Automatic annotation (TrEMBL):
Biological source species: Meloidogyne incognita
Record protein name field: CHORD domain-containing protein
A single GO molecular function term of this UniProt record: metal ion binding
Cross-referenced Gene3D superfamilies: 4.10.1130.20
Domain CHORD: residue ranges: 9-68, 154-213
Keywords: Metal-binding, Repeat, Zinc
One Pfam family here: CHORD
Amino acid sequence: MDSSNLLLCYNKGCGAKFNPDENKKDSCIFHPGPPYFHDAYKIWKCCNKKSTDFSTWLSFEGCTRGPHNPDKPCNDVPKVLLSQPEVEEKMIVWNGLNKPAERSEAHNRERVSLSVQMTESSCKALESELQRRKENVEIIDEIQNLKLLIGTGCTNNACKATYTGPETDLQECLHHPGNAIFHEGMKFWSCCERKTTDFGAFLDQLGCSRGKHCWTKGL
């Protein structure tokens, strides 16, 4: 039969061309149920075959036999007219500025500065807080002055750079500022959400943000 006379089957999961004269009741293998998508999965509702890969999902063989269908499905969306009741316009009348409030006699009274005296316990608490802040500054200075070992790795997510000397700090750090998320088989960074099911591919994803290297966790 001339291929120009063949008809296209519109059954979901089939898409084959067929001769209408040879169309039998079991010529077509298709999915009678609708597709639906949930949490990155593509699923056939009739047989629950699912995949996170769209091409793999489309290649799933049908779960039902029947005749080929030459009728193209109607995808027209019915038009819905929304009518809103007329709302009477509200009129706002401006009556001018409000009159200023009258000043009370208390406003014109003489102001007197009060002297503040600190108790002994308040002085001790202040000295303790100042000492604590001084110790914190000394600890931070000590950490920042630590000599980094050659070969120390950057602690930023997905950065594979290692410390080779002061010049390494001049290099740009390509990393993921977000957190690693694992949900229903998918692995992705919260900052860019490039999802994959393969753990190796997840670890090899290049960072989505540029900044400075971090050689010590917490700095």
